[in-house]
Amino acid sequence: MLPLAFYYDEPAHTFSEYLLVPGYSSSECIPDNVNLVTPLVKFKKGEEPAISLNIPMVSAIMQSVSNDKLAVALSREGGCSFIYGSQTVEDEAQMVRNVKSHRAGFVVSDSNITPDSTLADVLALKEKTGHSTVAVTSDGTVNGKMEGIITSRDYRVSRMDLSTKVRDFMTPISKLIVGKKDTTLQQANDIIWDNKLNTLPIIDDDGRLLYMVFRKDYVSHKEYPLELLDDKKRHVVGAGINTRDYAERVPALVEAGADVLCIDSSEGFSEWQKITLKWIRDHYGDKVKVGAGNVVDAEGFRFLADCGADFVKVGIGGGSICITRETKGIGRGQATALIDVCKARDEYFKETGVYVPVCSDGGIVYDYHMTLALAMGADFLMLGRYFARFDESPTNKVNVNGSYMKEYWGEGSNRARNWQRYDMGGSQKLSFEEGVDSYVPYAGSLKDNVNLTLAKIRSTMCNCGALNLGELREKAKLTLVSATSIVEGGAHDVLLKDNTAATYAK
């Protein structure tokens, strides 16, 4: 007799089938006291993780979500973006470099020119880098002897010949206030404010340029107190990789400054991910942090944890633009999958003393689903549709039937053609779609929306008597809900008011 397939004893549930039951709230349980710091990568018992998030949110590895612009915006709020990998190695690495150089306490100048260059050269450099401040060094290199500086106030294109030499209109070093190599960031900011400067060059004892400190960066940090920065005061950023060209892609991303990598795959319980993780460990040891996934059960989690993953992503077929379940019959309800994997994570920690964070990827429809996922054990959430709606996402804003929308498509769609994410190693490549091309309602700026979402999460945590995510997992009481109680939980049996017509909510 042939063996029978394995059957799980209970149905797989979604987030919408659960509610949190309030717990005792002390007088200390107010939203301002809630701490949302959470580990991004694995760590040993008694040690601190190499990278932690200030908020439990990362953006999905998708063409329609995570580019360099959104990565900067999310880092400012305390989260981390994973730059999409379905582009050339060079283009992805450049996006990472753009994020790492966008703001820093001490910025390595990427806009440098010689005194003998011309105004035309300055304008060409500005067009290339997008930066209006240009350092003038003796040889035009990043660490050449500092000769002066050029800003947009130093020239007027309409009144100057394009062949005018830089030395004739730059602000020379003799008229500049500069900082020395041992100047701290606080001292640099004091100099900037005391002297009403926009830029402070930092030079060494031989007069060579080391860094630039910008006034706008100081203002930015005051506006974004949870900003997620590395030890050089640069934005933290992740990047997606695949199980095909990792030997070329990983070195380029590491060189560009990526803080953490993640294997982007529709299904992570495979030898392909094991091979990829082994290659990274053989070449970089534990210095390069890399997450893996996706899985939906304890067995898949333990496989990737044993392979050396720094975090594990949970979720197959739960994304709003994913049709894997209806196309292939593969997947599991996100809530059930998450609960199962988080239990395995805790057991793994007890056995090995190594804590491998769990990332819940998919299944989030409403903001309260995020709090449920965190209560169920997720260390952080990977979000696609949520971030695709914002100004900072890379897609077009369009008018659809009188409403503003943003384009949003899956990595398994024909538009993305990200076959590396779905290729199983044979000759057939993305012969059918596992994602759709769609629109999502335009929602405005990332900052405004993230702050509103976090306010809801903090408030709900206080209702549960929790002031941090660890306490939320310990104190949370979750209950399954019936179909009728879901109806009861929304507006019902009233006539709703809106700007156009009354609608009856049943």
From TrEMBL:
PROSITE patterns for the chain: CBS, IMP_DH_GMP_RED
Record GO biological process: GMP biosynthetic process; GTP biosynthetic process
Name of the protein this chain belongs to: IMP dehydrogenase
PANTHER family according to UniProt: INOSINE-5'-MONOPHOSPHATE DEHYDROGENASE (PTHR11911:SF111), INOSINE-5-MONOPHOSPHATE DEHYDROGENASE RELATED (PTHR11911)
Positions in coiled-coil regions: none
Similarity-based family: Belongs to the IMPDH/GMPR family.
Organism: Succiniclasticum ruminis DSM 9236
Required cofactor names: K(+)
UniProt GO molecular function: IMP dehydrogenase activity; metal ion binding
